[in-house]
């Protein structure tokens, strides 16, 4: 355990109850969170999501394997960080709750761990809030905000109330940055978030890639990307290993570096990956 991440006696922050605003959900357009839920075998998806997801599966893109690999990486990364003594998690792009959610893994190791979930999809938030209802300690907070406006996200009073920004925080951007286009300015977003975190904080990223796609399957992949662009609420930007590595600026990678998701500190439960669908890595701010 490192000295700057030593466990502190955490008292849950005194949060006001979450305002339950009426949620307007458009189920006629596919949404990445619900498509991902479908890939993982979940039930929280609608016909438009299933149709878009099936279109993608029919292109031969390895999205189901990618989703399983990614989800398993998330669990191993949270376990690794918890074992390093990290007690605060800012998980942006939470997704519809599935097996091994961040708070379950982190609080399973340290019940005092604080987790803030952030997503811009109201349906994700509805599910997440239902899961947290009666969870007890007030150490898990759910916030609606957009990664594309990191300053507003950081200023959110519920984020501020739940996390102590003078102590190390794990910033989790797991399978969300590929929904940030180059026009959205991912480097600036990461800089704003990274600058707000103190020394000893960690950055966790997994990111979809087409690096391993061979020429004959390129057209299939282009079709899959086109489905996200034309049929869902968020375009998909797959990136190379070199480009994803740039996102760790200021957060030197811990071993084994940025690797295919299945190769990041695998354990007995890690699903075998047959191809490279996502890169995964964890960096630590010196
Ligand atoms: C593929 S899911 C990943 C879920 C989870 N992190 C995991 O890896 O299992 C991507 C999530 O990012 C969310 N998302 C996409 N764009 C976002 C944005 N601009 N701001 C916040 N969340 C976003 C989606 O709503 C979805 O829940």
Automatic annotation (TrEMBL):
Q: Name one Pfam family in it.
A: Methyltransf_19
Look up the EC number in the record and give it: 2.1.1.-
* Matches recorded under SUPFAM superfamilies: S-adenosyl-L-methionine-dependent methyltransferases
Q: What class of enzyme is it?
A: transferase
> An example of a Gene Ontology BP annotation on this entry?
methylation
Listed GO molecular functions? methyltransferase activity
What InterPro entries does the record point to? SAM-dependent_MTases_sf, SAM_dep_MeTrfase_SAV2177_type
Keyword RNA-binding assigned: no
Does Manganese count among this protein's keywords? no
**Record key words, sorted:** Methyltransferase, Transferase
* Region of interest (Disordered), residue spans: 1-20
Instruction: State what protein this is by name.
Output: SAM-dependent methyltransferase
The species is Streptacidiphilus alkalitolerans
Organism phylogeny: Bacteria, Bacillati, Actinomycetota, Actinomycetes, Kitasatosporales
């Amino acid at each position: 355990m490192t000295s700057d991440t030593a466990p502190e006696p955490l008292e849950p922050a005194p949060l006001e109850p979450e305002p339950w605003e009426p949620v307007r959900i458009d189920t006629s357009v596919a949404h990445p969170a619900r498509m991902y839920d479908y890939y993982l075998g979940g039930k929280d998806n609608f016909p438009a999501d299933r149709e878009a997801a099936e279109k993608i599966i029919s292109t031969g893109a390895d999205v189901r394997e990618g989703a399983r690999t990614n989800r398993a990486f998330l669990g191993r990364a949270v376990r690794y960080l918890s074992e390093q003594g990290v007690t605060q998690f800012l998980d942006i792009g939470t997704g519809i709750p599935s097996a091994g959610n961040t708070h379950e893994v982190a609080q399973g190791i340290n019940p005092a761990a604080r987790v803030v979930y952030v997503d811009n999809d109201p349906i994700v938030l509805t599910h997440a809030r239902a899961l947290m209802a009666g969870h007890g300690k007030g150490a898990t907070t759910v916030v609606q905000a957009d990664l594309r406006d990191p300053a507003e996200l950081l200023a959110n009073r519920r984020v501020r109330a739940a996390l102590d920004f003078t102590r190390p925080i794990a910033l989790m951007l797991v399978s969300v940055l590929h929904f940030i286009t180059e026009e959205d300015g991912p480097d600036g977003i990461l800089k704003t978030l990274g600058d707000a975190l103190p020394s000893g904080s960690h950055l966790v990223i997994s990111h979809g890639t087409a690096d391993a796609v061979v020429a004959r399957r390129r057209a299939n992949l282009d079709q899959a990307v086109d489905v996200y662009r034309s049929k869902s609420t968020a375009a998909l930007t797959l990136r190379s290993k070199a480009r994803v590595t740039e996102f760790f600026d200021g957060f030197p990678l811990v071993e084994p570096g940025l690797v295919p998701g299945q190769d990041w500190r695998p354990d007995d439960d890690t699903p075998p990956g047959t191809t490279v669908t996502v890169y995964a890595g964890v960096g630590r701010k010196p």
